[in-house]
């Protein structure tokens, strides 16, 4: 193999960030082949790690103080380059910000996401990429729109409180006060979620339980989102509840599509663009990608599949590292992966794989260097 090695993995959830995976694999390769040039492009699919990927691609970090999903202040970052900003919903409205034992399925709000978008506008952005994975809220994006100047009113003309549960009383969406800068701003919904807003595949029934909602709360959220959909459709004239991505992030996707005129794109593809992947791929001799668990879900819009697909199109061999690999050799090859190196193949203790992922990945980096370099 001739040419640089391009390392472009997603995170190992619960163990290492994407930059941490890059660092560990690069250390192993350098032990075997200190002469080989290594290019580093940590990636994401629109969830947590999206801002990190943008910063690695040359964006600058801008601090933002926002309102967390249940009202607590949150210190977070957005990424800005020229007139483009990257906002990560998980950092301000994410499930990771809540106590594991105290989820808030009815009360969690997307207000912080609106504040992060407003900060992007203040920084001069006229394209906002909204990475939308990992949300705590099922409020249809109402909190986000309220922060951006809209008003959500009940039948008596009173403001509807934040959260998904209270939306059952939503009767009117007043967009007259919406931040005028949004009219000249492109909002890109970076997501690998194609669920609609309502129904059996909708935001409440599919993702509500993941956010702590019991069966009764799921039905309450479904009723609330149904009321909200009617108010938004009346205000915007847009019937987008059934569109792919409307159910993303508890319906934040719906609000972006209907009220902000946004468009949805596959999250991994957007992140590869903002991270400068194609530029780094040019001339590369080997691509190393991966994530914590390689499985069938990986092949449906996740970062490693996007990386492997682009590498294959450029006739550059690609291999993957993973915590565990649930793909058959045939499925991995169909995805463009020549080989998969999994921590579970060298260390059967799953807890140790999580605790010592960095050191074990360095060992895998040595092995793949011996095999491919």
TrEMBL record:
GO biological process: organic acid phosphorylation
Keyword Chaperone: no
This protein's record includes keyword Cell wall biogenesis/degradation: no
A Pfam family hit: Gly_kinase
InterPro entries hit by this protein: Glyc_kinase_flavodox-like_fold (IPR018193), Glycerate_kinase (IPR004381), Glycerate_kinase_RE-like (IPR018197), Glycerate_kinase_sf (IPR036129)
GO molecular function terms attached to this record: glycerate kinase activity
UniProtKB keywords: Kinase, Transferase
Family of this protein: Belongs to the glycerate kinase type-1 family.
Protein name per its UniProtKB record: Glycerate kinase
Organism, as annotated: Saccharopolyspora montiporae
């Amino acid at each position: 193999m001739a040419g640089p090695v391009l390392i472009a993995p997603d995170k190992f959830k619960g163990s290492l960030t994407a930059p941490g995976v890059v660092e560990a694999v690069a250390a192993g390769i350098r032990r075997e082949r200190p002469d080989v040039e290594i290019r580093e492009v940590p990636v994401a699919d629109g969830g947590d790690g999206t801002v990190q990927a943008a910063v690695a691609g040359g964006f600058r970090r801008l601090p933002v103080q926002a309102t967390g999903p249940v009202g607590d202040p949150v210190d977070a970052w957005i990424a800005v380059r020229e007139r483009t900003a990257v906002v990560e919903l998980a950092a301000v409205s994410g499930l990771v910000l809540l106590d594991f034992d105290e989820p808030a399925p009815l009360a969690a709000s997307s207000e912080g996401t609106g504040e992060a978008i407003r900060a992007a506008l203040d920084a001069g952005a006229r394209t906002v990429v909204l990475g939308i994975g990992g949300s705590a809220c099922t409020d249809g994006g109402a909190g986000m729109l309220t922060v951006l100047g809209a008003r959500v009113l009940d039948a008596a003309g009173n403001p509807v409180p934040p959260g998904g549960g209270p939306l059952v009383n939503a009767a009117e969406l007043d967009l007259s006060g919406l931040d005028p800068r949004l009219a000249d701003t492109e909002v890109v919904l970076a997501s690998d979620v194609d669920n609609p807003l309502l129904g059996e595949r909708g935001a409440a029934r599919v993702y509500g339980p993941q956010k702590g909602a019991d069966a009764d709360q799921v039905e309450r959220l479904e009723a609330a989102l149904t009321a909200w959909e009617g108010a938004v459709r009346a205000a915007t004239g847009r019937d987008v509840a059934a569109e792919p991505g409307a159910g993303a992030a508890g319906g934040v996707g719906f609000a972006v599509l209907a009220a902000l005129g946004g468009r949805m794109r596959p999250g991994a593809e957007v992140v590869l663009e903002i991270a400068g992947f194609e530029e780094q791929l040019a001339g590369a001799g080997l691509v190393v990608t991966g994530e914590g668990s390689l499985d069938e879900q990986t092949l449906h819009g996740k970062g490693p599949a996007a990386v492997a697909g682009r590498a294959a199109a450029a006739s550059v061999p690609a291999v993957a590292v993973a915590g565990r690999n649930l793909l058959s050799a045939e499925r991995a090859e169909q995805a463009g992966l020549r080989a998969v190196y999994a921590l579970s193949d060298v260390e059967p203790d799953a807890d140790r794989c999580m605790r010592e992922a960095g050191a074990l990945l360095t060992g895998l980096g040595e092995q793949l260097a011996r095999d491919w370099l």
